[in-house]
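Possible race condition, two jobs.
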Amino acid sequence: MSESSKPRCIAIYNLKGGVGKTTLSVNLAWASATLSARRTLLWDLDPQAGSSWLLSDDNGRDKARAVFSRDIDAERLISATDYDRLDLLAADASLRGLDRLLFDLGKRKRLQRLIEGLRGRYERVLLDCPPGLTETSEQVLRAADIVVVPVVPSPLAERALHEVVAHFAGSGQRHPPILPVLSMVDLRRGRHREAVAEHPDWPMVTYSSLVEQMAVRRAPLGAFASRSPQSEQVALLWRGIEKRLNQL
């Protein structure tokens, strides 16, 4: 990557919570750093700080929001993880006030500018986004090259996806490609099988207790179960994302 190239940005986002967004963010970031050997930053924007907790013990500094007001340089808060080429910009409780701060600042491309400021250091920046249609999600819309939307096979989750698509389409501005991903799929359940049949071109990550083990081991799936079907599904998804990025 040349020093003049800005990192390509992948946002993992959904209007709805509880769809596997955080585990997908961590697994895709690991895939970027390990499978593609990309210098990768996982930027946790969710005040629940799930991704931060999975990858680091050094959270809770209450400075994450200050990056956006530029009271502190983003690089000062970036920490290494246990995985080569994968760094973390952790979330904390201060991000609960991020929407208000961004609104007050009136800087509609602040996140995009901050990511551009990381040029030369990272090739990929993955954003673990908070749920909801908020000022933060508007910033993500402007900053991301691709938006990955995990969708649990349920009417409410699918409705949330449709709302995201409609919101982006009605924004009146150019928006990044939206990549739906069927998440937490249990093929023993009829509705889940129907969803897979209805969307054969959507990537899929099936349900497994191994994914729950991520919270016990505090590690990406590929780090302890690299040969599992779920790890292979994430790897396939990541290769598809890389292919889409190369086509942009």
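Job #2 (started ~2 s after job #1):
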Amino acid sequence: MKKAIVIGASSGIGLEVAQLLKGEGWTVGVAARRVERLSDFEFAACIDVNAEDAGVQLLSLIDRVGGMDLYFHASGIGHQNRMLHEDIELQTVTTNGLGFTRMVGTAFRYMADHGGGHIAVISSIAGTKGLGPAPSYSATKAFQNTYIQSLEQLANARHLDIRFTDIRPGFVATDLLNDGNHYPLLLDKTAVARDIVCSIRKRRHVRVVDWRWRIITAFWRRIPRFVWRRLPL
């Protein structure tokens, strides 16, 4: 029986993926700050990725589950911040940058010492280009894209049997987007979760969820900088 750890599983995509894995027969350990929402799972832990001991808590959860074949990172925050409020920018960098690095790094080191595994993370299409309405969010998502790519190269250089999947959804209808702003082409969280589990099963390296967003991001990449910086997003 395969064993998975899902971080950020109290709601949204993380919870949906955890439930799908459980339904497929995986032993699933889940973690989030709101542990009261994880009562449906046998193995649950209250973990704040920004806590200094979060890595130690992750290892403790892995030990309770009995190992880890898949690490799935769904923890993250994001806000539009057109006024560039400092607290929003710093909290986003802390969670999506430092917290992400802390947890994914812990998972990498565990797998390096225990024969390998699979690391899958939710980043975002927002990492494709710098988005003016959400500066720290798009910057941290670009960081996540590059970090996973770097770890993939590092694992190959060290001859480690660790696989990686970088999931890049567009806008998904979850609590994260309940901020009163309009978001186009909203995706259903259950459909996104199914796509993620399929992508993990097929060992995809990078997956932009939904064909419409794949076309849009391919177009974004081709827009020159002098045009992009003038777009009224």
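The chain has a mean pLDDT of 93.
Logs attached separately.
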